[in-house]
Amino acid sequence: MNINATLFIQWIPFLVLAWFTARFIWPPITKALDERAAKIADGLAAADKARAELANANKAAGDQMAQARVETTKLIGDAEKRAAAIVEEAKRRAEEEGAKILAQAKADADQQVVRAREALRDQVAVLAVKGAEQILQREVNAGVHAELLGRLKTEL
């Protein structure tokens, strides 16, 4: 055997194998690789889109948080104003009630003073009658002298 003839004979199975590989094996592998590359490209595009959407969502969330802070601050301010108004109203009502109670107490005290004066006048009148009775050493008729006793009460 000649080395040249073996070389040509070895080339035949090699060429058949290369043709078979190129015809039946290589296209599915290429197709699978192309599909994989397309999936990777789609995944990268989706990741970029998701990253952009995340950035937009973070910005929107930040804006909403800022708006919520502003609204919360406003609500707290309104609540503080309302609380101050309620406290002032309660103070005003308490002062009015205190003034009413004080006026009522003064009126009651005045009535008690008037009653005490009346009672004192009655007692002074009785004492005056007793004193006059003892001075005159006779009994004075209170029913007969009622007018005199009434004038004495008013003078006292």
From TrEMBL:
<keyword id="KW-1133">Transmembrane helix</keyword>
<protein>
    <recommendedName>
        <fullName>ATP synthase subunit b</fullName>
    </recommendedName>
</protein>
<dbReference type="Pfam" id="PF00430">
    <property type="entry name" value="ATP-synt_B"/>
</dbReference>
<comment type="function">
    <text>Component of the F(0) channel, it forms part of the peripheral stalk, linking F(1) to F(0). The b'-subunit is a diverged and duplicated form of b found in plants and photosynthetic bacteria.</text>
</comment>
<keyword id="KW-0997">Cell inner membrane</keyword>
<dbReference type="InterPro" id="IPR002146">
    <property type="entry name" value="ATP_synth_b/b'su_bac/chlpt"/>
</dbReference>
<keyword id="KW-0066">ATP synthesis</keyword>
<keyword id="KW-0138">CF(0)</keyword>
<comment type="function">
    <text>F(1)F(0) ATP synthase produces ATP from ADP in the presence of a proton or sodium gradient. F-type ATPases consist of two structural domains, F(1) containing the extramembraneous catalytic core and F(0) containing the membrane proton channel, linked together by a central stalk and a peripheral stalk. During catalysis, ATP synthesis in the catalytic domain of F(1) is coupled via a rotary mechanism of the central stalk subunits to proton translocation.</text>
</comment>
<dbReference type="GO" id="GO:0012505">
    <property type="term" value="C:endomembrane system"/>
</dbReference>
<keyword id="KW-1003">Cell membrane</keyword>
<comment type="subunit">
    <text>F-type ATPases have 2 components, F(1) - the catalytic core - and F(0) - the membrane proton channel. F(1) has five subunits: alpha(3), beta(3), gamma(1), delta(1), epsilon(1). F(0) has four main subunits: a(1), b(2) and c(10-14). The alpha and beta chains form an alternating ring which encloses part of the gamma chain. F(1) is attached to F(0) by a central stalk formed by the gamma and epsilon chains, while a peripheral stalk is formed by the delta and b chains.</text>
</comment>
<keyword id="KW-0375">Hydrogen ion transport</keyword>
<dbReference type="GO" id="GO:0045259">
    <property type="term" value="C:proton-transporting ATP synthase complex"/>
</dbReference>
<keyword id="KW-0813">Transport</keyword>
<dbReference type="InterPro" id="IPR050059">
    <property type="entry name" value="ATP_synthase_B_chain"/>
</dbReference>
<dbReference type="GO" id="GO:0046933">
    <property type="term" value="F:proton-transporting ATP synthase activity, rotational mechanism"/>
</dbReference>
<keyword id="KW-0472">Membrane</keyword>
<dbReference type="GO" id="GO:0046961">
    <property type="term" value="F:proton-transporting ATPase activity, rotational mechanism"/>
</dbReference>
<keyword id="KW-0812">Transmembrane</keyword>
<keyword id="KW-0406">Ion transport</keyword>
<dbReference type="GO" id="GO:0005886">
    <property type="term" value="C:plasma membrane"/>
</dbReference>
<dbReference type="InterPro" id="IPR028987">
    <property type="entry name" value="ATP_synth_B-like_membr_sf"/>
</dbReference>
<comment type="subunit">
    <text>F-type ATPases have 2 components, F(1) - the catalytic core - and F(0) - the membrane proton channel. F(1) has five subunits: alpha(3), beta(3), gamma(1), delta(1), epsilon(1). F(0) has three main subunits: a(1), b(2) and c(10-14). The alpha and beta chains form an alternating ring which encloses part of the gamma chain. F(1) is attached to F(0) by a central stalk formed by the gamma and epsilon chains, while a peripheral stalk is formed by the delta and b chains.</text>
</comment>
<feature type="transmembrane region" description="Helical">
    <location>
        <begin position="6"/>
        <end position="26"/>
    </location>
</feature>
<dbReference type="InterPro" id="IPR005864">
    <property type="entry name" value="ATP_synth_F0_bsu_bac"/>
</dbReference>
<comment type="similarity">
    <text>Belongs to the ATPase B chain family.</text>
</comment>
